[in-house]
Amino acid sequence: MHHSAIKKTPASVSLREQHKIFSFAEKERVELAAALSHFGKTLDDLVYERSHEQVWSGGVPRPLEDFRGSQHHIPMVSFFTGCGGIDLGFEAAGFEHVAAFEFNELFCKTLRKNRPEWTVFGPPTGSGDVSKVSEIIAALEPIIPINFEGVFAGGPPCQPFSIASNQRFSKAGNNFKRVGFDHEKNGNLLFDYVSIIKHFRPACFLIENVPGLRDLDGGEQLSAAIKDLESAGYEVKSPTVLNAANYNVPQYRNRLFVVGTRTNRSIIFPTPSEIQYGAGSVLRQKQGKAPNTEIRSHKLGSVLRYARLDYGQRDQLGRVDRLSPSRPSKTVIAGGTNGGGRSHLHPEIPRTLSVRECARLQTFPDDYSFVGSTARQFTQVGNAVPPVLAAQLGLSLARSIFGVK
């Protein structure tokens, strides 16, 4: 599955030169950036103590363009759209984008910047908030009919019932303790999404989530949602976990997909690819002129620690891992909503990845740009479904459920 070879390639700076730069920074008490500049170098010229001992020698993963399907124009509406990973994939697979609902204004800006032709419901035009079910229905009714012959897709952020109910009631109120199923469904976005599906009755729906949704509240939550949809006439395929690394994405990333139809056809999930691509397949080329390539300016102490790591090793203090070029990347994460966005360490340069490098691991095209602070760009990229995985799901839906050749 993995291609790797042992071959030395010339390092950007020798370890001796690097030591000289580090010593200069310590002795002169200057920031690492200033020391690098003094020697006419940048962070990208630095190396690990053990470098280029693993090399990705396979090809590059197929780009999103390669998954273009026939333009069948089956309509799709997305919910909890984020920066548009599912939408980009479905667009490539030939679907017609009808509307997107996203309540985070920054994510809406990213969507509108990259796809000005899409209809995006969200700040500052509407709330885009799926928990406001009647508002969402009112926004969609002029655009799509009941018994909509298309797809609804979305990944509701899920929380345990107990949290959902606790958030609705003050701790002083009698209702604070768990008060039974109906209250617990309130304030839970999965069930809000289910309500909207039941109202418009799309031919097909897709629910995407982390695999943990299967076990949340002992599996009660997901099975309640599925029962609800089945009683509304949907045939629901049993929840299926796909690892993006098996679908032309250079990253280990498990995601749960639930697909339901009212067409007497059920989805045949995409076929796994023959090989898994190492992170080096998309990280060995320079960042070039693509957007979102800013690199975090690391302190000397951090780089000294990073430089000692071997492939796959974790820096315990910074809680970051050095990626291996010959294996898929660890899951790209969104980072905390308040703190800085975090990313893994580059396989061959002792620094964290840029937003663009993370976007490449997530299979976003290089011309797709993310707006907002760097931390919030990381959040958008890390929350997304890899567009290349979404495209393969879209093609599978089109063929198995809508009969597209």
CATH superfamily of the domain at 64-275 and 386-400: Vaccinia Virus protein VP39
According to CATH, the fold-level topology of the domain at 64-275 and 386-400 is Rossmann fold
Regions with little confidence, pLDDT below 50 for 5+ residues: 2-11, 175-180
Count of distinct strands: 10
The CATH architecture of the domain at 64-275 and 386-400 comes to 3-Layer(aba) Sandwich
Report the radius of gyration as a whole number of Å. Answer: 23 Å
CATH class of the domain at 64-275 and 386-400 equals Alpha Beta
- Put simply, the count of helices is 14
Query: Main β-sheet, in a few words?
Result: 8 strands, mixed
Structural class determined from secondary elements: alpha/beta
Strand % is 5-15%
* Intertermini distance: 30 Å
Helix content: 25-40%
Shape: elongated
Average pLDDT confidence is: 90
Q: What order do the SSEs take from the amino end to the carboxyl end, as H and E?
A: HHEHEHEHEHHHEHEEEHHEEHHH
Description:
The protein is of the alpha/beta class and 405 residues long. The chain has a domain at 64-275 and 386-400: 3-Layer(aba) Sandwich (Rossmann fold), CATH 3.40.50.150. The chain is 31% helix and 10% strand. Strands 1, 2, 3, 4, 5, 6, 7 and 8 form an 8-stranded mixed beta sheet that branches. It has a two-stranded antiparallel ribbon with strand order 9-10. Helix 1 crosses helix 2.
